[in-house]
Design brief:
The complex is a heterodimer of chains A (591) and B (690). By secondary structure, chain A is α+β, with helices and mostly antiparallel strands. Chain A is 29% helix and 22% strand. Classes of the chains: A alpha+beta (591), B alpha+beta (690). At the A-B interface, helix 1, helix 6, helix 7, helix 8 and helix 10 of A face helix 3, strand 22 and helix 12 of B.
């Protein structure tokens, strides 16, 4: 056995074996995740990676989560689902080969499309050890709008689809035909959905087998001990990261445009973050109340997701997600807020506000962690799409995408991008060539939005202009946010230009932010303008050479260069040093 | 006389192997790679090995020049000409971030900055119809600007050109005429698959590396000619086949993985000769370990590659052998974090300063240092004794940096930690092998582990045990195996087109017609380079269920709708464990491959001088074996003393120039007919030690 000094005898697991087991455990969801992405039918799975793959122990505590899933699942939704299953059936009635599922909004706190499927894993002794689970965005589970979750004006959960609270899809390895019949007959796209369910089921089974191999390798007792050790290490790491930050209370306020129903009624987001010892306490008492429209989420599926995501951006970007790593995160979140909505609140577009909430928590910490934050990013989900009958095939088509835009400048440099929101990750934009091949649209322009970046010593990332010409009669769907609360600047940086959409018909343009059904005729255009990031530091302090290059590249106009940055360029594009100095001094005096 | 020569210019060494078909003589040599001008290193090899090039009929060459030019951004000023409205596609990329919680995540710098990206009025519709033809005067104006900006190369990439390349072809022809000194490349000359960003990036990467590679190939051709060479000069493509020098100069992106593929080809050819159908080719070098599957001599070829890795790199649409790489190599550094969790890699000491034991300034313990402390490497025979290793320095680094702070005390502490470093490295490499097997629906136990590279043979038996693989094969000259692979590589070209079709008998007629077009163009390009030679075509298609995004590659035996559907379902089920009985199936792209055999040496003779049929006289030394948790007296063989048919039980090590094979106490080995070492792995179900 290992020769371990007294000081460490309390530490049961040898670091080498711990590293071996941790690598083995993490590889299970990572292997399954790649399979799921490749076999899924829903673009929300294969493009948006709107899924999670993970394992929890017999009590629902998180063991490992796939590295590449969306931050939306950082909260232990699998654990919530499993605990509901244990409460309903009792551990004794969950058997080998059972596969359970739930999308119960009161348990999960996200839209009904997010369905958790899980299967138990037993050790050689017959003891229940763990659950293998996949959460997948189901492409359509009924409700009043195609895709179930797309309507921006829903006011009841029941409008958003079928709710399945903790049912067995398989019993001892055999499919429960009744449940399959219910699902098949409550969706607009039964073939696709059953295809996705097959992929989800295959992932549960394969993941379970891989976990069983690990049990055979290490023994069940030792494996459980190692898992506990992993948790405590992750907890120590997370706490140490918070302890290094001075205690204090940090606040920030932002807001959302509206909930799609009460148009123009702003939704306040006031967050107060307290760092106390190793605790990171996020107080959401100042966020808006539960909304009439579908932008609500639950205490765990909404509030906790935001607090945990912000925590990882700020403190532990490289720690694997398990039961221990969020130990410092505490929340004050009274019930009845839009981040802690009740069981029947509409939640179809639950994810739209969350990136702004995370952005606000990050922004609040600017004073405490100046090098780990950035100015505001473009901010929301910014979804848009087209649907209708394709003239070539006569079949219904439904195209859906989200805009990508600029992120905020920081002490490290200019804002990055174009990316989707803070709550996205490895999610790819759909190529224009794919869009034009599959849908009756033509993209006429897809380029940087000049002068959109929030000016600053380090400017924000630019937004994008993308113009579609519609080639057949169809409907457009627009779900934009963060238009009235532009991406903020930091340390004297200015805000970025916000996002919006314009519909152009017969030579007239009108602005649209949220609308579910916009009828369009051939020749009409949809201009999507994505938001830009906020700037960092005063634009008057930006290196004149950087401004000159921005002008040469067409990121910044000559007018903005002189008006905002105070940089004067000669006709040949060179910097007029004397004029620039004079103009900058004048501007500094004025302010 | 007929001599075949292969030279692989790697990151550290340039390897040469030559084979004289008249008398069976084989020569191997190595020389340091000369980065300022890689041709010097090649010439050094010629001189060291005394190769007479006037007797050579075939010269094959693998080079890292393309990948290095792209990675180091060492190319010239390059411009891009694209469709009006789309000049920023190259800079946007796909909007994804691979580092999930990083507010500052950035991709590698764009190859063509915005001020050098030009738009012209032209358009092809999503149906393939030309909506607007390019205008010569507009192109002429851009040509003037390009001259003014002293652009060395220009890439052309238009929206939807994958369907109809005519506009690109026209503009390329005009620009070649208007700018005779400029390197001109059009996206559709390289790829006919959809996705504008990937195709534009491919054109940009080709333009970026083109001038340099063109110059290099020409200079090397001159050097060869001056030394009397009048045979065929071929370059190693990343698809596992060789291509002509002019082809390489016009499409350097085909060479991005020119070096590493050599080993995979070699593994495939040896496997076929040895009657081994399923192989995991495993290569461990200084900074990474790489693995790939070879089945019946065939390896999977992917049509998308990322220069500098998926995380931040530039995509290139070019056929590349499907290799999975993990950041675990001999130079990988072992360290622990604040929570005392041990990690191995991905940071590497590389070859400079290198592991602590190299004595070149390295201070952090590495996998190689751990091997040395455990007696698995011979400090006097590393690189054939050209480089002495300092075992004491390795040991004290492990004690100071890891063992003592982690509480492993006493004489045994450094050994515990060194053994732990190896175990962690093995698990990481095992995960890479799982990614090419388990994740592709394969069971590693059905495969033979074929190990080469400096570190492959050192860890292969334990890796096989970890994955319950029963047989390990170490080819001859394991440390120089890439060059051998090149020597046996065929001429090969891959081409593909996006061609979305529902699967039914009518659409298959169109698919057949498309294949004929592809095959005719391949045949013609082969004829131009090599004259009338015997060609063999293979057909494959990327297929999926209607509604899916991702595809599986299906080999096409015959274009029968039912049969093809069944093959798709079988392939899908094998890979993912389930298939959907009634769902509709579609073809997304068609792939055609042509191969032409090149003269190939006799593999049995490649093993070099046959050892005399006398009994080898091993020495012994103490080597730590984890399964015994102790140092055990092990036999030490010199590989060149082992005759064909020789066999022995472990524990032992077999040393040769450039690599060391470790055989455990429960394993046995035998020298096979081609000079390969075959190791039967014992204790298959031993699992991890307690």
């Amino acid at each position: 056995m290992n020769v371990i000094s007294k000081e460490l005898t309390a530490q049961v697991v040898d670091p080498v074996r711990l590293a071996i087991i941790a690598t083995g455990l993490q590889s299970i969801p990572d292997l399954i995740e790649a399979d799921l992405m490749r076999t899924a039918f829903s673009p929300l799975v294969y493009e948006y990676k709107d899924y999670a793959v993970g394992m929890v122990d017999a009590e629902g505590r998180s063991i490992a989560l796939a590295t590449n899933g969306l931050p939306l699942f950082l909260t232990n939704l699998i654990g919530l689902a499993v605990r509901d299953g244990l409460a309903i059936y009792g551990a004794d009635n969950i058997e080998e080969g059972d596969v359970l599922l739930t999308n119960h909004a009161a348990t999960i706190g996200q839209h009904l499309n997010n369905v958790v499927m899980y299967t138990p894993i037993f050790g050689p002794s017959g003891k229940l050890l763990a659950f293998m689970s996949l959460i997948v965005h189901w492409i359509d589970i009924g409700g009043s709008y195609p895709g179930s979750a797309s309507g921006t004006d829903m006011t009841e959960l029941a409008q958003e689809g079928l709710q399945l609270r903790t049912v067995k899809l398989y019993k001892r390895g055999k499919p429960v035909e009744e449940i399959f019949r219910i699902i098949e007959n409550n969706t607009r796209l039964p073939e696709m959905l059953l295809g996705d369910i097959a992929a989800q089921y295959a992932g549960c089974v394969k993941g379970k087998q891989l976990f069983e191999q690990l049990i055979a390798r290490h023994g069940e007792d030792f494996l459980l001990t190692a898992i506990s050790a992993m948790w405590s290490k992750a907890e120590q790491a997370a706490k140490a990261a918070v302890l290094a930050v001075p205690d204090g209370v940090y606040e920030m306020t932002s807001f959302l445009d509206d909930d799609g129903v009460d148009i123009g009624k702003r939704i306040p987001i006031h967050v107060k973050v307290e760092v106390r010892g190793s605790d990171f306490i996020v107080d959401f008492s100042g966020v808006g109340d539960q909304l009439r429209g579908p932008f609500n989420s639950g205490y765990y599926g909404g509030g906790e997701v935001c607090a945990r995501s912000a925590f990882r951006y700020l403190f532990t970007p490289n720690e694997p997600a398990n039961e221990g790593c969020f130990a410092p995160v505490k929340m004050i979140l009274p019930p009845g807020k839009f981040l802690s909505a009740g069981p029947n609140a509409p939640m179809g577009r639950y994810s739209t506000p969350l990136a702004t909430v995370v952005d606000t928590i990050v922004g609040a910490m600017a004073k405490a962690l100046p090098d780990r934050v950035a100015a505001g990013h473009h901010g929301a989900l910014d979804a848009y799409g087209f649907n209708g009958k394709h003239p070539a095939t006569g079949k219904f088509f439904n195209y859906f995408d989200t805009a990508h835009g600029g992120w905020g400048g920081s002490s490290h440099g200019d804002g990055v991008g174009p990316y989707k929101s803070l709550l996205h990750g490895d999610n790819k934009d759909i190529p224009v060539e794919t869009q034009e091949s599959l849908y009756p649209v033509r993209v006429e322009h897809f380029g940087w939005r000049e002068d959109s970046a929030g000016p600053g010593r380090h400017r924000g990332g630019l937004g994008i202009d993308k113009s579609y010409r519609v080639l057949a009669p169809c409907n457009s769907f627009i779900g934009f946010e963060r238009h009235y609360c532009p991406p903020w600047g930091l340390n004297g940086g200015l805000s970025g230009t916000p996002a919006f959409v314009e519909i152009e018909s017969k030579g007239e343009r009108r602005k649209v932010l949220k609308q579910s059904r916009i009828p369009l005729q051939p020749g009409d255009m949809v201009h999507v303008h994505s938001g830009a990031g906020g700037g960092f530091g005063s634009p008057l302090e930006r290196d004149a050479k950087a401004v000159q290059l921005d002008v040469a590249r067409g990121y910044v106009s000559r007018a903005q260069a002189s008006d905002v940055y105070g940089v004067v360029l000669s006709a040949d594009g060179s910097i007029d040093d004397a004029e620039t100095r004079a103009l900058r001094n004048k501007k500094i005096e004025k302010s | 006389m007929t001599i075949y020569v292969a030279v692989d210019t790697g990151g550290t060494f340039t390897d040469l192997v030559s084979f004289n078909a008249s008398n069976g003589e084989v020569r191997y040599t190595k020389s340091l790679t000369t980065h300022h001008n890689p041709i010097d290193g090649i010439v050094n090899c010629f001189e060291k090995a005394e190769v007479t090039l006037k007797d050579a009929t075939l010269f094959k060459h693998g080079t890292t020049l393309v990948i290095n030019t792209l990675l180091e951004r060492a190319g010239p000023t390059v411009a891009l000409v694209t469709t009006k409205g789309f000049r920023d596609v190259l800079e946007f990329a796909r909007g994804n971030r691979t580092a999930l919680f990083d507010l500052f995540y950035k991709r590698d710098p764009v190859l063509v900055p915005r001020e050098l990206r030009f738009e012209i009025s032209e358009r092809v519709a999503g149906s393939g119809e030309i909506l607007q033809k390019p205008d010569r005067e507009e192109v002429q104006k851009i040509a003037e600007l390009l001259k003014e900006r002293k652009v060395a190369a220009v890439a052309i990439s238009f929206i939807n050109s994958y369907l109809e390349p005519e506009n690109e072809r026209q503009v390329a022809a005009w620009l070649r005429e208007m700018l005779p000194d400029c390197y001109v490349t059009a996206g559709t000359e390289l790829s006919r698959e959809w996705y504008e960003y990937e195709r534009t990036a491919t054109a940009a990467a080709n333009a970026y590396s083109g001038p340099k590679i063109g110059g290099y190939v020409a200079s090397l051709g001159d050097v060869l000619a001056k030394r009397g060479f009048s045979g065929q000069f071929l370059l190693m493509g990343s698809n596992g086949g060789v291509l002509s020098a002019p082809h390489a100069a016009s499409a350097p992106v085909l060479l991005v993985e020119s070096g590493p593929v050599g080993g995979c080809i070699g593994a495939g050819v040896y496997g076929q000769a040895l009657g081994i159908r399923n192989i995991i080719a495993f290569d461990m070098g200084g900074t990474t370990a790489k693995c790939a599957l070879v089945r019946d001599g065939e390896f999977a070829v992917e049509s998308l590659y990322h220069v500098g890795g998926y995380g931040r790199g530039t995509p290139v649409r070019a056929p590349v052998i499907d290799i999975v790489e993990v950041g675990t190599g001999g130079g990988s550094i072992a360290w622990f974090d604040e929570q005392r969790r041990i990690h191995v890699g991905p940071k590497s000491a590389g070859s400079s300063p290198g592991p602590v034991c190299y004595g070149k300034g390295g201070t952090e313990p590495t996998v190689t240092d751990a091997n040395l402390v455990l007696g698995r490497l011979n400090p006097q025979r590393f690189q054939g004794g050209e480089m002495g290793l300092n075992a004491d320095a390795a040991k004290s680094a492990i004690v100071e940096r890891l063992a003592r702070p982690l509480g492993y005390v006493g004489e045994n502490g450094s050994v515990e930690v060194a053994s732990g470093i190896i175990s962690i490295a093995l698990v990481q490499m095992g995960e890479a092998i799982k990614r090419v097997t388990v994740q592709r629906g394969e069971d590693p136990r059905d495969y033979v582990l074929f190990a080469y590279g400096g570190g492959g043979p050192l860890h292969s038996v334990e890796l096989a045990r970890e994955l319950a693989i029963p047989l390990v094969v170490i080819p001859p000259e394991a440390g120089n195996f890439s060059a051998i692979g090149m020597l046996v590589a065929n001429i090969r070209r891959d081409t593909s087109r996006t061609f979305v079709q529902r699967l039914n008998p009518e659409s298959l007629e169109r698919v057949e017609a498309e294949f004929v077009v592809l095959e005719n163009s391949l045949k013609e390009s082969i004829r131009q380079d090599f004259g009338d030679v015997k060609v063999e075509f293979d057909r494959a298609a990327q297929m999926r269920y209607v509604g899916q995004q991702h595809t599986v590659k299906v080999t096409i035996q015959s274009l029968d709708s039912e049969l093809l559907r069944q093959t798709f379902m079988d392939t899908y089920k094998a890979r993912y464990g389930h298939a959907i009985a009634n769902a509709e199936v579609e073809i997304v792209s068609v792939h055609s491959t042509v191969q032409v055999e090149t003269a190939r040496p006799n593999l049995a003779k490649l093993a070099g001088k046959q050892a005399a049929n006398s009994v080898p006289q091993p020495t012994t030394r103490l080597i730590f074996f984890a399964e015994k948790n102790a140092f055990v007296t092990a036999k030490v063989f010199s590989r060149d003393s082992l005759p064909v048919g020789f066999s022995s039980g472990g524990p032992c090590v077999i040393e040769e120039y450039g690599s060391t094979t470790v055989v455990g106490p429960a394993d046995t080995f035998e020298v096979g007919t081609l000079g390969e070492i075959r190791i039967t792995v014992g204790m298959l179900n031993a699992g991890v030690r307690q």
